[in-house]
Design a protein that fits this description.
The structure is a single chain. By secondary structure, the chain is of the alpha+beta class. 64% of the residues lie in helices and 10% in strands. It contains 13 helices and 5 strands. It has a 5-stranded mixed beta sheet. Strand 2 and strand 3 form a beta hairpin. The longest helix is centred in the middle third of the chain and has 75 residues.
Length: 404
Amino acid sequence: MSATTEDPLPEKARVERLIRIGQPPRDRGEVLRKLVWILPWLVFLGAPVQDLLGDHHTTAATTAGWAGLVAFTGIYLAVVFRTMGRPYSGWLVGAMVAVLWVLAVALTLSLGHSWLGLFVYVSVTCGVTLPLTAAYWTIPLTTAAMMLAGWFVDDLDEAWGLFLIVLLVGYSMTGVRQLVRTTVELRKARATVAQLAANEERLRLARDLHDLLGHSLSLITLKSELAGRMLPDHPDKAAQQVADIEQVSRQALVDVREAVTGYRRPRLAGELAGAQVALTAAGVIADLPTEPDLTTVTEESESALAWALREAITNVVRHSGAQRCVVELVRRHTLDGPMLELSVEDNGSGGSGKGPGNGLTGLTERLEKAGGTLEATRLKHGFRLVARVPASAPLTATDVGSPA
């Protein structure tokens, strides 16, 4: 596995190839992929097509049958396909379902038992497009209509063979429809949560900047005015005010730098959550700890482990070709004291690099600065990266104290 300093794999590149549930297609490719999910269900139209091709009816009946079949199929595809993206209005959907229902009954009664399969599509349409309260009674009504049509054309055996299919496929479509609706709602909720989190972060940044700079800037303004008034008659006092302004400005600069460092410092819990998302998006089975125990761990050590995890996951996603990645976080007692160990192991090919790249070199330096170490091992089937940092702050002379 070669190292890299590039940005993590963008999820958008993978999402672009997926079928967006509950959303309209964006291009011809998505139209074709959605049609693939619909067209296989047209298998029940095989019997009507064979019936029309078998010269079992008069020319007028055959022509009418083809016209009815084309109209039925077109309406079915239109209403179901639009429901997967931008659905028709309620009254238009109801009218189209009614037309399908009438066509199924009329074609079956006039052309025979081979057309009973049309009721499968009527049941599917009821389950997919109608409100749940309406679907719950129109599906059994469609099933009953099919049984009556089978009795009328003297083929109850065929009707009984389709009984469970018509009934169950309609109710299963209501479940699929609720699943799609839940997926859409979850997508919207996730976007809302992300927006609220961003807004909260902006408010926190505004509060911190106000607390850090508000008092300092007010003091600088006041002392500048005092220095301006003292300058003609009391230049020595004005110089003291200028010195105070310099001191306050330097302290404000230190405070801002510390605040910015805190904002930029990665957190291990956040990196673990990001690793789960990145691995899942890349199709890698992820085994990660949920709540890391960071008791007594300094911010510098946590930040170093977070960088190590980010670098390791980036390499797994971009270069390893792995199917599984295991992340472990354990405490170990060593001769150098308690250590927090992060292990990232995958079963991929390890990439094409022959030596440590810039990413691992920089990561090693970062860990050494925090008092830790880095081990990168190429396995027979995969790669393992182990990062260790002190699990507690080093003792100082004040902490040790003097002997009693």
